[in-house]
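Q: Convert this sequence to structure tokens.
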Amino acid sequence: MIKEYKTIEEVAGPLMLVRRVENVKYDELGEIELPDGSVRRCRVLEINGSNVLVQLFESASGINIAQSSVRFMGHGIQLAVSEDMLGRVFNGMGEPIDGGPRILPDKMMDIQGMPINPAARDYPSEFIQTGVSAIDGLNTLVRGQKLPIFSGSGMPHANLAAQIARQAKVINTDEDTKFAVVFAAIGITFEEADFFISDFKKTGAIDRTVLFINLASDAAIERIETPRMALTAAEYLAFEKGMHVLVIMTDITNYAEALREVSAARKEVPSRRGYPGYLYTDLATMYERAGRIKGRPGSITMIPILTMPEDDKTHPIPDLTGYITEGQIILSRELYRKNLMPPIDVLPSLSRLKDKGIGAGKTREDHKNTMNQLFANYARGKDAKELMVVLGEAALTPIDRLYAKFADEFEEKYINQGFQENRSIERTLDIGWELLTIFPKSELKRIKPDLIEKYWPYNDDGTPRRKLAER
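A:
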């Protein structure tokens, strides 16, 4: 039997203290009934004997302490899950906001989830094509991987997130059709929400997407629960329905700010820059829900997106995220100012699992060699351009001028593809080969001679040797 308590002692911001409570558990869901009959939700944040501290999902305004009552539901926050979630738009607490009917659930799932047993994890090894050359060609995303995007304030990470959500797919598998996207927008503006919803509907991507929208005007507690709602939906689709699920979450910085707000309200001792000392653990409880499980066909691949305050990579949020995840994609403000989109800075970016998802049978046999050669030549080209700024172009050797030219061409043709172009991995690799023709073959020291012979685009007289891949 559910008991009702009229022992509310105090309300302070998003927190409320209830005394003389029995048999209540941490993270349990509660309901506050106001004198007018309206109900607001809360969850148990702390238990001290018979005293319980709860966190409100909605505003505390209007709560009459003497006349309001609290009841605890005996379970944590749950999400109603079903395959019918695909194509739907929900708020941060899993309630439909697209005008459609409520979901008839196959089951109710606790949003805290269960950690994947490390012994049961399967190693990520299958390529996911995003259609973005700077990712597919040089910092490859692998099924089951966690690959964050580090952006900055005002950068077009929302456009990149929408592009990946539209274009991503698993290739070279019989289960290609079982691909779904779970998109969690955390603490965004009305304009950004309209952009995501209209973009997905216009392109048809909404049909395979579960979209969670949490607005900046919503309560901080909802911001904390939104990514867990998304991951719970992803776990259902991946591990119970056998789908390959890509989870995109933007913006993790807004999530961490909400966590800091709640921590401050609880008067916890702050850690670096005011964030709670358990920020690392809290982020890990989300990130580590991605992966593959042995014996199950489905998988969860995760792309969390965060804006680095003041473009500082040492800020606690990107710093801790980097420890937990397998690499990072970094957006460059310099490329953004040059209007090169998406402005992905490939040199400091890294995918630690890229070698596991490329090569013959996965992408193409020349992928690893051409990737290494493009990295090396672009890095040397950037050095040559810096030297040219200091000493002038006349101080460069003829071969250094080629490298400087290659750096410009690489940014213009390889990185700069816009947010609407969807390139196949074959097209990405062929663009790389076209760029390498700037150099004599003797400069391609990182590519095996037999691969140069097979994939070099032109004959000695300049005529095409082979048909290049289209988009």
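The chain is about 30% helix and 25% strand.
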